[in-house]
Design brief:
62% of the residues lie in helices and 5% in strands. β2 and β3 form a beta hairpin. Strands 1-3-2 form a 3-stranded mixed β-sheet, with helices on both faces. α4 packs across α6, α6 packs across α11 and α11 runs antiparallel to α13. The longest helix is centred in the last third of the chain and has 24 residues. It has 285 residues and is mainly alpha-helical. The radius of gyration is 21 Å and the shape is globular. It starts with a helix and ends in a 7-residue tail after the last helix. The chain has one domain.
Length: 285
């Protein structure tokens, strides 16, 4: 759960709009006198309120409801790749990664979109998108695709995705009271899909790398897939491999730094494993 400091601006605005007593019961007012416009506003308020005040189960359920509407909007506006073999591969990888105990409370769906640049993003609730150039960059190697998907899953598990949406909706929450706001789709279209593709803070990207590495390893994938994908990105950043990736490299942590950190994590993990395997067996009590 996020700390109070992370969501107090949202609660403050909601109190101003609806009053403190009405906040827990916002969902119940959706079908009453307010009408269609209020139902849309109430739904958005309920998503935010449940995400910050409910149990983990309720929070994830409401987060997924928000994410599903956002994902549907993206699929309406962007062109999805119609490739059954690729879809089956992505679903298989996501299924294996989802068997980790760290993902047991989440469900994930992966889609591939047409785009000019290799990139990926995670929407709240576990809706993940990879672009066709990114899939091509991995050459459909399962270990490298697992690295990408595990990284995006980690943003959802660590609540980076929903926290970023909160930060934007906190600014736009006044629109909850306007009849024009009937769903989150207009907001998604206004900010554009590129906003979701942009990087998180350096700290959050490193956190997603670390957890993603663990998820991939636990699922049986080669953790070096992370390093290989980043090395391909590094190749694209050179003058000879320039492909218009200036925006990606300007918003993400330096590739060399990510590779160095991942290599250190792998070395540390290997040392611990070697130490554990070489330890003498414990004597029976």
């Amino acid at each position: 759960m996020p700390s109070f400091s992370e969501f107090w601006p949202i609660l403050f605005i909601l109190v101003l709009l609806f009053g403190a007593r009405r906040l827990p019961g916002l969902a119940k007012t959706a079908g009453s006198k307010a009408g269609k416009a209020a139902r849309g506003a109430t739904r958005k308020a309920r998503w935010i309120w449940s995400s910050v005040s409910g149990s983990e189960e309720v929070s994830i359920r409401e987060e997924r409801a928000m994410g599903r509407e956002m994902a549907n909007t993206v699929l309406e506006d962007e062109r999805a790749i119609d490739d059954p073999d690729l879809k089956a591969l992505l679903d298989e990888i996501a299924s294996k990664l989802s068997k980790s105990g760290r993902t047991r409370t989440h469900r994930f769906e992966v889609n591939c979109l047409e785009s000019d640049q290799p990139n990926a993003c995670a929407l709240p609730g576990g809706f993940l998108f990879l672009t066709a150039p990114l899939v091509a960059l991995t050459r459909r190697d399962p270990d490298e695709l697992a690295a990408v998907i595990a990284h995006e899953m980690s943003h959802v598990i660590l609540r980076h995705s929903i926290q970023r949406v909160w930060s934007q909706l906190a600014i736009k929450t006044v629109s909850l009271a306007t009849p024009a706001t009937r769903s989150i789709a207009p907001w998604v279209r206004k900010i554009g899909f590129q906003w979701f593709e942009s990087a998180y803070s350096r700290e959050k990207e490193f956190e997603a790398d670390e957890l993603g590495l663990t998820l991939a390893r636990e699922a049986g994938y080669d953790p070096l897939g992370f390093v290989r994908v980043l090395e391909r990105f590094r190749g694209l950043s050179t003058p000879s491999g320039a492909t218009g990736l200036g925006e990606y490299f300007s918003t993400h942590p330096p590739v060399n730094e990510r590779i160095e950190r991942l290599s250190e994590l792998l070395e540390r993990s290997d040392r611990l494993k070697a130490t554990s395997s070489s330890a003498p067996p414990r004597a029976d009590a």
